[in-house]
Request: fold
Amino acid sequence: MLILDDSTSALDAKSEKKVQEALKTDLPDTTKIIVSQKISSIIHANNILVLDDGELVAQGTHESLMKTSEIYQRIFESQKGKNLFASEE
Reply:
């Protein structure tokens, strides 16, 4: 098990994407718990937990949370235009 607590917060989108790719390819069978305020860090996670004031308010994939969680949608929209997401090249 690997626990990462806001480990990519100081990285630009391109560097963060390299870290994510390395975690996926180098540790494919390792359970990863990623704590992050940046949706770009967890957007491809199998399961995302959304906390508000320490309380679990939503859970699911990015796609399901975009349909069902108003708070997750607001966070995503607030980050969308801030160059946090690496382009899919």
Q: What stands out?
A: The domain at 2-80 is CATH 3.40.50.300 (Rossmann fold). The longest helix spans residues 13-26. The chain has one domain: 2-80.
